[in-house]
Amino acid sequence: MITTSYHRFRSLVFVAIIVAFLYLLYSKLIANNTSGPPYSLYAALKKQEQKTARKFLESLQLIEAQKDNPKFVLFRQQEGLDFGSQACYAQEILLYHHLALQGNRIFIYQPFEWKSRKEQLPLSAFLLGVTQERAVPSSFVEELCPKTSIDVARLKVDLSQPEMWKSTINTLQKRKETCIIMSNPIIDSNFLSSPAGHSVWPLFQKYVARYFRWSTQVLDIVDRTHTHLDLRRHFYSLEGEPYMVLHLRRGDFHKQCKTIAQQQLGFTKWNTLPAISSATLFPRLNPANATSVMDHCYPSLSRIMEAIDQQAHRKPHIRALHIIHDDAASVTDIWKLETALKSKQRAELYGWPYGPMKSITHSGMVPYQANEQDFSVGVDVEMARRAEVFIGNGYSSLTSYIVAMRLGGDVVASGISDDITLL
């Protein structure tokens, strides 16, 4: 009996190693086929941003000829943010655009900065909506806000978080200067997790529904992915399988979670919204307890399975799971999840009325074409935004981004908090 169990264990380990090897080989082949940024596209988009901005400024001269001159604002973004942290970068940019609109000023947006590549990428390649709604690129700064002009104010808002947002809006609205350049970041890494951030949410939620739009590049890949993986494009569509998305954060995140546990930190950013406080999988998080933090930050597969089971009971018609991940180390866990979730015996044991999952897909199966890897984060976020159910990690900025985009609610995403589970 012991010998049989041992041989079975060895066989499972061997199969896991083979699967991991094949996945890594597949990933390498895909990377080779899709390697290299789309520089010609970026160059064209930069020109288009300039052209769009010029037309917008010309239209202002006609429309506002009898009014006050249009006013602008350039915010200082957090230092240390990189394109590699797109989820943080994008949330900050969206909030600053929202803040500029609240302050009745035109937003001077900056490009995405990829520091490790020493490159600046056009914002419109990713977040199109920001660039098309009362906004101009930072390449217009010297023209609109010349350094020698007395009509340019360089300001610093030095207040506590609860007062920072309101005070900035008041400053933007009341100052007479054509240009305001903020010398300190208005939004820091703790802002969205605080009561001050929560107070901003109701209007930002409306902003997301009205102004948030992906670029054509991101949407084309998402559309192609739904077709390729036979997943439903919209929750109200009839084509493709209805699906839930799991954000599986693995790899180097374990080390980060240990640091978070030592610092006794709670969930991050929009994951702390009162509207989804009931979305956390039991037992509730206790930041003062290191074991509790690790259970939520780096959940076991059994905990992940429990979250999937609960949502499967709520919506038994969903029999497809798409896993978004960013680390090859996730491959073994994906294989284990697929083995369990496709098991008829397990489905019967846990009371799945319509049987086990029929389809389990993941980020590594997205059909990227040449030069499209830069758009992978946007594709993952939109795939999760359109899913009927989303299961995420409360300590992840990417999960926070997805939560905000889902709760923003539009004809694509229903914005129902019950359809979200935080591990």
From TrEMBL:
<keyword id="KW-0472">Membrane</keyword>
<keyword id="KW-0812">Transmembrane</keyword>
<feature type="transmembrane region" description="Helical">
    <location>
        <begin position="12"/>
        <end position="31"/>
    </location>
</feature>
<protein>
    <recommendedName>
        <fullName>O-fucosyltransferase family protein</fullName>
    </recommendedName>
</protein>
<keyword id="KW-1133">Transmembrane helix</keyword>
